[in-house]
Structures are given as structure tokens and as C-alpha cells.
């Protein structure tokens, strides 16, 4: 894809996200309709659904030939990576949104034939946007992202899934112990922003495409590793345990996982 076309898309998407954020904040203190999906900790609200429909409508108007994979089902039944595919997470960290009205994100990604082109993670209440892709670089609130140091596990904080640590999946307790400390934010988007800004050396959780689609693009562009927990390539349509980290921390974690 031509870089000038990418820049036009980038400017357009940032406009959508500003409007999307405004829509969410206008309704954040209203009475929510909250339902469960797979279980009592897997929530969806009327705001999730409304925000996804808003973003789907913008994409349909701007890029009608593309397909859309949305968490709440407003898009298409995407079973192949061929062509242009948009991935939407309208509210990432819905439990945080419901219980705290904070620490949640909106995420959007564009893939073409399975390759990441543009990714966006917006911390809604913090008004903090990480954006970009391999042809234009990564930006932190519009400024080029400061290069993140290649810090090993033992010298950094690690973002981890609380349930996975409690069950010691993949030797997660050892990973936590060998880091300087674990953090559990409850939102993949907020964790990934922290990794990109050098506040965490990595993040591990079971994720679906809308959870990691944008982060995969941004982190790989920034020179980090994004794989399955056992170091295998991560497919765009995968639902699996994802390991996202600096290169040195990634090597350290794979050693622990393999023990």
C-alpha cells in the first residue's frame, strides 16, 4: 500500500477515534445495560455495542470493499486474511469500564492480506493514543515514539493475567518472581500502551484478535516480539495465549515457559 494512502487512512481513523471517545465519555456516567457473555467476568454493555456500530459505520462508508472483525458481532464473519480486514475492540477492559469508569481502551487495526498496516490503541479517560504501523512508524500522542530499551525480564515490571498467575499456567509464578514485579491492569490495551512506553518489559494473557490486533502491529513496528506463549508465530485470526515483550525479556520468558 502506498505511504500517501496510509497517511490519508491514518488521519481519517484518528478523526473517528476522537469522535468515538467523545461519544463514550458523554455516556460514561449514564445508567449502563450490562450483560454477560461467556461468564460473569466477561461483560458487554450497551456502550460497547453502540461504539462498535459507530466504528463499523465509519469503515463501511470509507472502505466499503473491506471486511470487519468486531468483538461484539457488528461486522462480518471473517474466516480468511485475504484482502483488507479491519479489527475493532470498541471497549477493551469492559469490567474496568463498568466498575471503575477508568483504565479501558478503544482499539482498531487494519490488516491487508494478513500483514499489519495500521494499529491504534486509545486510553479513553487518559486521552492517550498510540498509533502507527511499519510504513510510518509508531506515534505517542502524535509524537514519534521514544525508542524503548531492550530490557531483560529481571530488570523490569511484567504485565500478567491474574487468573493465569493464580493457576500458574506456563510457569507464570516464576515469570512474576523473576521480574521486578507483576502488574494486572485488566485491559490488554492499557497493558500494551505500558509496554510501548517502556513501563513494562512485557505482557502475557489469553487474547483474541481484537485484543491484540492493534498491539501486534505497534509492538512489532517498535522492534518488540509478539508470539504465542511458546514462541510460535501469531496468526491474525488466532485466539491463544500471547507473549508480547522486549526481545531480551521474550527470550528470558521462553526459557522459563520451557522448564
Give the helices and strands as they follow along the chain: HEEHEEHEEEEEEHHEHEHEEH
CATH fold-level label of the largest domain: Fructose-1,6-Bisphosphatase, Chain A, domain 1
Number of separate structural domains = 2
Strand order of the largest sheet: 3-4-5-6-7-8-9
Broad structural category: alpha+beta
The H-level CATH homologous superfamily of the largest domain, spelled out, is Fructose-1,6-Bisphosphatase, subunit A, domain 1
Please report the first level of CATH classification, the CATH class of the largest domain.
Alpha Beta
Overall number of strands: 14
Report the end-to-end length measured between terminal Cα atoms. 43 Å
Sketch the major β-sheet: 7 strands, mixed
CATH architecture of the largest domain: 2-Layer Sandwich
**Average pLDDT score:** 96
The level of helicity is 25-40%
Note the beta-strand portion: 25-35%
Radius of gyration: 17 Å
Low-confidence stretches: none
Amino acid at each position: 500500500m502506498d505511504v500517501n494512502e496510509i497517511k490519508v487512512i491514518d488521519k481519517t481513523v484518528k478523526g473517528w477515534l476522537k469522535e468515538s471517545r467523545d461519544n463514550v465519555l458523554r455516556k460514561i456516567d449514564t445508567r449502563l445495560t450490562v450483560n454477560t457473555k461467556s461468564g460473569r467476568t466477561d461483560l458487554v454493555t450497551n456502550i460497547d455495542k453502540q461504539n462498535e456500530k459507530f466504528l463499523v459505520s465509519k469503515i463501511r462508508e470509507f472502505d466499503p470493499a473491506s471486511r470487519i472483525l468486531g468483538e461484539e458481532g457488528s461486522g462480518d464473519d471473517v474466516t480468511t486474511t485475504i484482502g483488507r480486514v479491519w479489527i475493532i475492540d470498541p471497549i477493551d477492559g469492559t469490567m474496568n469500564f463498568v466498575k471503575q469508569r477508568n483504565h479501558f481502551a478503544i482499539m482498531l487495526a487494519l490488516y491487508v492480506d494478513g500483514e499489519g498496516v495500521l494499529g491504534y490503541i486509545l486510553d479513553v479517560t487518559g486521552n492517550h493514543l498510540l498509533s502507527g504501523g511499519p510504513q510510518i512508524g509508531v506515534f505517542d500522542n502524535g509524537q514519534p515514539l521514544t525508542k524503548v530499551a531492550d530490557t531483560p525480564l529481571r530488570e523490569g515490571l511484567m504485565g500478567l493475567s491474574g487468573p493465569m498467575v493464580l493457576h500458574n499456567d506456563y510457569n507464570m509464578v516464576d515469570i512474576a518472581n523473576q521480574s521486578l514485579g507483576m502488574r494486572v491492569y485488566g485491559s490488554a490495551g492499557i497493558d500494551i500502551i505500558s509496554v510501548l512506553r517502556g513501563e513494562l518489559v512485557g505482557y502475557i494473557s489469553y487474547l483474541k484478535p481484537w485484543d491484540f490486533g492493534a498491539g501486534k502491529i505497534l509492538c512489532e513496528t517498535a522492534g518488540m516480539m509478539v508470539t504465542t506463549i511458546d514462541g510460535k508465530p501469531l496468526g491474525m485470526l488466532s485466539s491463544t495465549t500471547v507473549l508480547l515483550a522486549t526481545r531480551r525479556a521474550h527470550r528470558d520468558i521462553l526459557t522459563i515457559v520451557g522448564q
